[in-house]
Amino acid sequence: MKKGDHLFLVDGSGYIFRAYHALPPLTRKSDGLPVGAVSGFCNMLWKLLREARDTSVRDTPTHFAVIFDYSSHTFRKEIYPEYKANRSAPPEDLIPQFGLIRQATKAFNLPCIEKDGYEADDLIATYARQAEAAGAEVTIISSDKDLMQLVTPMVTMYDSMKDKQIRIPDVIEKWGVPPEKMIDLQAMTGDSTDNVPGIPGIGPKTAAQLLEEFGDLDTLLARAGEIKQQKRRENIIQYAEQARISRQLVTLKTDTPVDVGIEDFSLEPQNGPKLVAFLKAMEFNALTRRAAEATGVEASEIEPANVPIQAVAEAHGPDLDIASGDDLPNPPKPAASAAPNGAKPAFGNVEGTPAGLVKARTDQALAAKIDRSSYATIRDVAALQVWIDEAMASGVIAFDTETTSADPMQTEVVGLSLATRPGRAAYIPINHVSGDGDLLGGGLVEHQIPEREVFRMLKPLLEDASVLKIAHSMKYEWLVMHRYGIDLHPLDDTMLISYVLDAGEGSHSMDSLCDRWLGHKPLAHKELIGSGKSSVTFDKVSIERATEYAAEDADVTLQLWRLLKPRLVADGLMSVYERLERPLIPVLARMEERGISVDRQILSRLSGDLAQSAAAIEEDIYRLAGEKINIGSPKQMGDILFGKMGLPGGSKTKTGQWSTSAQLLEDLAAEGHELPRKIVDWRQLTKLKSTYTDALPGYINPRTKRVHTSYAMAATSTGRLSSSEPNLQNIPVRTSEGRKIRTAFIAEPGNKLISADYSQIELRVLAHVAEIPQLTQAFADGIDIHAMTASEMFGVPVKDMPSEVRRRAKAINFGIIYGISAFGLANQLSIPREEAGQYIRTYFDRFPGIKDYMEATKAFARQHGYVETIFGRRAHYPEIRSSNPTHRAFNERAAINAPIQGSAADIIRRAMVRMEPALNEAKLSARMLLQVHDELIFETADEEVEATIPVIRHVMENAAMPAVSLSVPLHVDARAAHNWDEAH
DNA sequence: GTCCGACCGTA
DNA sequence: TTACGGTCGGACG
Predict the structure, then answer these.
(1) CATH number of A761-902
(2) Is pLDDT at A815 greater than 90 in this prediction?
(3) Is the predicted pLDDT of residue A439 greater than 70, yes or no?
(4) CB of A722 under 7 A from strand B?
(5) If one looks up domain A597-705 in CATH, what number appears?
(6) CATH 3.40.50.300 describes domain A6-265
(7) CA angle in degrees (0–180, nearest 5) for A453-A457-A458
(8) Where is the DNA-directed DNA polymerase family A palm domain (predicted)?
């Protein structure tokens, strides 16, 4: 770079936000992808590059670069942790545009510059000074006052939206000081958007006046005593240090260690086809035409580019200090290339809004026919290559594996299907065997590509960052593929998309979604493999039948995705999906894959003990009952207790049977009856034996010698996970007998289990959402929350409080979370309903905010049909307006509970997503194994335990930040031990 | 064989 | 009074 050259530096990140707010919203016609800021950006670049030479006020650039913020974690955070801490997450429809704007920059053949740890402003400052030193002119395309300190006779700013140059006189006119004093001015005034503190009471006018008088900030601070106005003088003296810190924050770094030098910014000619392909994909028709004309390209001959929405740390805004690293989803393909069955997309009918797109897609999907006979079977390498090429070009594929077992840790792949666009799908048979296994073991069927070859060929596709893989229940596919050495990514999951959109509106299984949205019943798995004793594994199914079934699944998945994905934007739920669901897929998959070690001997010994104890009690029961009945049959037991023996207090279940619940039997036992006590004890022992000590060993995987649970991501209405086969979220803990089960969950030799659990997370969430001052204060002070409640309610001092008083307050606190009723509380506390009702009234008197919160939540649910967590996750209650009072009341209680339970669930999900990067960052080898709603279990080497616990605690306690700044602190207890009982 | 209710383990 | 999943008995086919 030399004298006479002219460097243009575009503040890309600044532009994005400004354009987003200044320009009218715009969405891509075919799928509703928000592109307003992208459009403004492209038009601006076009103008700068094409029209600069015609404008007298600007020279033609010889060098050009677009600069972006990389992430919110910069050196300024080290100086001042609160820097930019008050920034909220970027708007929903801006998020996908961060990545798109970077791709636009590249499509314009311009350098796209960003650097971890630095803001765009620092890079701009560094490049501007370098160019200036080389004698070149610089134009900074931005109107941000933070950059005005850079203006010199050689460095000009240009506000592209107002088409206005900003030179030294313009800065003086606007701020009252020349550019070189802007730093001191900003240090004094501070900046509320970036959370730069400054000096209270000093605005730009005062600051300029003071700088005029004293010359610079240091002189001012040194001679502050001379200031006449008392308040101003006090503030300047008191906040001198704050001003100095502020100065550090606003001073742009002109010596950023850059990776790309200014020499590399030399302006290159446009790549016409590349630019047109991008603009076409964005559906910017006017600009496409102009770009095609100017570059001599025939627009109609150019295919729209495959434009993936890539991971951009900035896209997470200030939200993620620890970037997830996962790619954001590819956008839906333009309808022109993806209309089902070759039908013309209904452009004329599609409104330019996400909602319009959803409507069009829904109608389209219902009209489309699914033709199972059209699917292909891939039997040789050449055919497979054709499909792989097509998939690569398409950029989006739906994907499904057929396997021998529902357990991804045990299963073998039988075949694999993929769909590249609606109606176009194929099946790759791999391990089908001849049906009759009796004769000579039923070998592999002919004309199947060898397994190794299939995976060798598919691996590049399945791991290609530019090809989005869609599945229904992707965690299963991920696990299966991982066993074959494939790191499946990037991912989308139609089950999870449906879950985010419609939690509470019924099942998210593919069959029901297909029926609901496509009006089609796909072939049932059972129809192929049969059921029960006569069922076979999928490898015995004929390849013809398997093709119809498997390819249909892929086809349906793709069609569901096209339909459901745009709804995430339309309904404002993209960030729930992107932050809480999609990144959790590989996290949970790895947890399931790791499993946990369970000691068979301990369980076996416990089982023997339980059997003995139960047998002893059985003898007593038969004696007391006077006959040998099935103790495990509530029906028979009820008849004995309330029929034959005529005990009092019997009540009936809804089917007319005598109720024999533990609570009821306990009450009878308390009145001195012997038999009910025995039954309760017997039930406890046999429950522990059958559900835990006897069942768990059967789940030890013979290959890994560990137990691998399965987490359902879309099973609950509130956002919680559920665990099954085995359920490791209900391992006993309340009784000493039950806790022994936990001693069987152990760490490998030389390792420890770490258990870290949130303390009172749901009550803390309640304190936050309902804004209850006493609760917030109590959590801030770290005092016993139930004792505080009791003290408030009953006027008892916390000190020496009777345990019964605290117990009742605790039950009420839980009751509140559950959407309390007098009936339920009375039951829980075994007190009269009137008394329970009085408690509730007292509670609402003492904490009126709770009552308000409950009423507001009910009203919201009635109006919208759903409620929301603090992160925007929705739980639907379609029957909240039921005319049946009992039914309606049930829905209301659930609706009150869901935001509380769900917000807590969201918080731990966020912690889980961030945990692995945080541990890696700290060079720790701890593995996250289990989640139990408010608890995470890890396994790690003995010598790393001490270093690991603080990292875990930090991630968990800060998991809500910065998307939500809770008004109460989160507290995590963590302990390490060789087994789960001692760690908990 | 499959389904449902009762019961009970967890948060 | 919220949210789950597993086991059992018993009724149904």
Answers:
(1) 1.10.150.20
(2) yes
(3) no
(4) no
(5) 1.20.1060.10
(6) no
(7) 115
(8) 738-944
